[in-house]
Design goal:
By secondary structure, the protein is mostly helical. Strands 1-2 form a two-stranded antiparallel sheet. It has helices spanning 10-34, 37-62, 71-74, 80-97, and strands at residues 2-4, 65-67. It is built from four helices and two strands.
């Protein structure tokens, strides 16, 4: 297995960060406009979920990918053992018959 670090363009990372921060600010802004205590509680819970999701996504963005060869190329199968057993069984059957 080979671990390859992921490389992302800085503009891509900045755009994702801006979207997450904007989403968090918009939810808090809606809570401020509504002037409802219940919505403030819901908004805080939603923001905590958004932050957890954002941290998880950013962790996956920087986590190295595991790259390996396809399993067919890595493993080499040989049927010589089974062929030898089959040949010996056929030979034994021929000897017992003849």
């Amino acid at each position: 297995m080979i671990k390859v670090p992921q490389k992302h363009h800085p503009v891509y990372l900045a755009a994702i960060s801006t979207l997450y921060v904007g989403l968090i600010v918009c939810v808090l802004w809606l809570a401020a406009i509504s002037q409802s205590t219940g919505f403030w509680v819901v908004a805080i819970l939603i923001d905590l979920a958004i932050i957890a999701l954002g941290v998880r996504i950013f962790y996956k963005l920087f986590k190295p990918r595991i790259v390996s060869k396809p399993i067919k190329d890595v493993l080499d199968f040989s049927n010589t053992i089974t062929e030898e057993k089959e040949v010996s069984k056929v030979a034994e059957n021929n000897e017992s018959k003849g």
